[in-house]
Write a structure and sequence with these properties.
The chain contains five helices and two strands, in the order ααβααβα. With 103 residues, the chain is mainly alpha-helical. It has one domain. It has a two-stranded parallel ribbon with strand order 1-2. Helix 2 packs parallel to helix 4. The chain is globular and about 35 Å long. It starts with 6 loop residues before the first helix and ends with a helix.
């Protein structure tokens, strides 16, 4: 679930939740960009079918507008032919409609 936090914090928390790690622990993975994060996520998803639910997506897009284009690029390059299922959610319906209309 995205929070109103800087993009770097969101990326670290997302990846930590995927690998069941503490995002505040020393040595926790940090990613310089959303593209770097999605590449690491794709590597985690190669072995088996995985479901990724991105809740409160507008918060992540608000913190860094590049997030959506990086996700679209990652889908085209890494996830489209994988067994990954990515669900995009947000509590503000109009915001979700606007975000998804552009992608």
């Amino acid at each position: 679930m995205a929070e109103k936090a800087p993009a770097a914090v969101q990326r670290r928390q997302l990846f930590a939740s995927l690998i069941n790690a503490d995002p505040t622990a020393a040595g926790a993975p940090a990613f310089a960009s959303w593209s770097d994060l999605w590449q690491a996520v794709a590597a985690q998803f190669q072995v088996q079918r995985r479901l990724l639910i991105l809740d409160e997506l507008p918060y992540a897009a608000e913190a860094d507008p590049a997030m959506l284009s990086a996700l679209q690029h990652a889908w085209d390059q890494h996830f489209e032919h994988s067994q990954a299922i990515i669900v995009l959610c947000g509590s503000h319906v109009r915001t979700m409609e606007l975000l998804l209309a552009h992608q």
